What we know:
Elements: H1 10-41, H2 48-59, H3 61-64, H4 68-97, H5 108-125, H6 127-137, H7 159-170, H8 172-175, H9 179-215
Amino acid sequence: MPSLASDELAPLLHMLSASGGEVTACLIRVPTEVVKQRSQTSAKGTRSWDVAKSVWAANGLKGFYRGFGSTVAREIPFTCLQFPLYERLKLILARRRTASGQVRDLPAIEAAACGSLAGGVAAGLTTPLDVVKTRIMLGNQPSSVTPSRSAAPRAPSAILPTLRQIYFTEGLRALFSGWVPRVVWISAGGAVFLGVYEAAKGALQEKSEARRERVD
């Protein structure tokens, strides 16, 4: 049986770790995302505080977590693609471009490029899930936070019904709406976030090794 540190289990560990982190993050992210999206789609440019009060008055705490399941359903596949791909790209690049063949010797700028590519690929492939998540969060949302008699019919609030509704009424293209800006900004974000992370990690490791040498 392979050990937890083996290369065979590394992708699985990356997936599990990333997925656990994303589920926890969604507990905080989803309420702010609900308020943000409803503020952005309000015809009157309603303030975030007013939107939050409206959500609470209409649905209570549950209203802030509308789309939680669809957000998790988007983030888990995204991270399960992004981080194993990121680690694999770093390993391939390190073996080709460093004398030691070790990932830790890979320059931060090259790790940033791996992060950008991994993020872009994951973003493009999970765009349909992002579209579904957005539709669910904004489902049955009128043009302002005040109730309207002419409000649209209630939209599906589950992932598969929403996916089917979009596909059969709007076509496959609608499921990839906004894929270009999504890929661009996540690619840029992956480069910055993971590049800075690798640079900071490398600096701390060097500092720790230098301190250890002084002690020895």
